[in-house]
Amino acid sequence: MLPLHDDVPTRHRAWLTLALIVANIVVFALVQPHGTASDARFTYRRAAIPCELTQGRPITASEVVTGECGAPTVRTVQGIVPDRPLFPDKNVFLAVLVSMFLHGSWLHLLGNMLFLWIFGNNVEDRFGPVVLAGLYVLWGVVATAGYWATNSDSTTPLVGASGAIAGVMGAYLVLWPRARILTLVFYVVVPLPAALVLGGWFVLQFFTGSGSGVAWMAHVTGFVAGMAVGAASRAVAGPPDGPGGAGRGRRPAPYPGWSPPPPTWEPPRSWSRVLPGGFPSRGTRPARSPAT
Questions:
Q1: Domain containing 173 — which CATH number?
Q2: Widest Cα–Cα separation across the chain
Q3: Inside any domain, residue 167
Q4: Is residue 262 part of a domain?
Q5: What's the CA gap between 104 and 39, in Å, rounded?
Q6: Which residues span the domain enclosing 223?
Q7: 73-100, pLDDT tens digit by residue?
Q8: Which of 142, 182, 273, 279 is the right S-S partner for 5, CB 3.0 to 4.6 Å?
Q9: What is the pLDDT of residue 66?
Q10: In contact, 51 and 156? CB cutoff 8 Å
Q11: Torsion of CA 242, 244, 245, 247, to 10 degrees
Q12: How far, in Å, CA of 196 to CA of 244, rounded?
């Protein structure tokens, strides 16, 4: 299933969501190297690596060659591989934030940005750009922590915004479970409830193959963190109004400046001076004179 569009309107332009999309595209297109030996070197220098987070220091050449966290100096057919850090000046914890803006391919990038645009604009409309910026970083960090907890000895770099975006999706699911999502299903576009689309995506993460290269545990932990924030927002501020929301309040304004129509018209009280006996109150009939 591939979501394409939702039916939940927004009240404000999603500037943060747009900025995140532009930043991710610019980093991948203009900053990251592609198809060269420098690509791997760039990734190991900039991206988060679970082994580095475990040991609190940059990864060594011997750890990269052997794939073992904490590997000592080794001898290969090419010679001796020392256990010195590859990039001694690397901040391994700042790399967690940098990893959220790195991607493995155009397909990886564009897929993440599609999900961010469909669900991010409504979540930004709910929380505002400043709060969402903090939540986006929080969800990305929690997603990385979830992946690290189950792969603490991995020497493979972790890249992608999908953990943070999974948090956005989790919050959306709690706040707009009945929203209609236009979804591509086997070459047919059909409207499906958000609960089915996002709930199905979440369940499928547990069936991801171990050799797929997908950090599905980061997706799961980011999604759960997003659901927790969405549930807290719903408890404090109430469910959102409008189509697809968890509440049943009135719909949001269809366009800026819109106001509801005025109530049923009633004559001003000053008119009672020119109407014999005043005028009847709303919902009553005037008394009729007895027949003569």
A1: 1.20.1540.10
A2: 124
A3: yes
A4: no
A5: 10
A6: 2-33+95-237
A7: 666 545 566 678 889 999 999 999 999 9
A8: 182
A9: 84
A10: no
A11: 80
A12: 13
